[in-house]
Amino acid sequence: DAKTTQPPSMDCAEGRAANLPCNHSTISGNEYVYWYRQIHSQGPQYIIHGLKNNETNEMASLIITEDRKSSTLILPHATLRDTAVYYCIVRAYTQGGSEKLVFGKGTKLTVNP
Amino acid sequence: KAGVTQTPRYLIKTRGQQVTLSCSPISGHRSVSWYQQTPGQGLQFLFEYFSETQRNKGNFPGRFSGRQFSNSRSEMNVSTLELGDSALYLCASSLDLAGAYEQYFGPGTRLTVT
Fold first, then answer.
1. Which of A7, A10, A2 is nearest to A112 (CA)?
2. Chain A contacts of B92, Cβ < 8 Å?
3. DSSP designation for A15
4. Angle, CA B1 vertex, CA A109 and CA A43 arms, to 5°
5. Nearest to B87 by CA among B25, B42, B51
6. CB 3.0-4.6 Å disulfide test: which of A75, A84, B24, B74 passes with A18?
7. DSSP secondary structure, A52-110, as one string
8. Is the bond into A8 cis (omega within 30 degrees of 0)?
9. In this structure, what DSSP letter does residue A3 have?
10. Cβ of A30: how many Cβ atoms within 10 Å?
11. Cα nearest neighbour of B91 on chain A
């Protein structure tokens, strides 16, 4: 079962920041928070991941609360092409191990013109 | 660098038949995972291969099997197809075992069983 809870849908105006929340209250110390998105009929796309500290890359920023029980994915300037289902996943980072991705229902983000 | 490629992209089969799907990972990636996506169940993990060995397996019947070749390319096979096997089958590759590295997905194979 997925270890995360996300709102089923969100709307955002084009050009504004999209803030997607995720609750992962049972996260373990060795589990990372990963974000993927899936644009209609395409394979999921990796966005970002983090453990404790906030992370930023060319696509998005990830803000993780100090207790690590929740996080927020931020798309700073959403465009129509960011309309997709966004998945928040927690998984262990095990060097040499094998940890499958468990996808929940995700959040359907619709960016409106 | 080319992404993950999957062939064929679309497939129509009849109940009882078998099907083989192919996945070519990103060059240099050694791990390949397979997922099934349906409207009802969402994305579900099938199995992961690394160094030609199955390293992890999801909760699917034995009709679903796979293998990986020495060049990291992978195939999955579904025997005795059922209507419920209609789905988008996604392959994902990662540099090393998927627990340590992010996965990159292919476009998927859309399988329709009639």
1. A10
2. 43-44, 101
3. T
4. 30
5. B42
6. A75
7. SS-EE-SS-EEEE-TTSSEEEEEETT--GGG-EEEEEEEEE--TT----------EEEE
8. no
9. -
10. 11
11. A43
Using one digit for the tens of pLDDT, what is the confidence trace for A17-67?
999 999 999 888 888 899 999 998 789 999 999 988 899 999 999 999 999
Handedness of CA A17, A21, A27, A31 (dihedral sign): negative
CA–CA separation, A70 vs A66, rounded Å? 9
CA angle A94, A97, A98 (to 5 degrees): 105
Amino acid at the residue A36: Y
**Which residue of A49, A98, A103 is in closest CB contact with B99?**
A98
Helices (H), B55-103: none
One-letter amino acid of B104: Y
Q: Between these two residues, B75 and A102, which has the higher pLDDT value? A: B75
Q: B98 pLDDT exceeds 80?
A: no
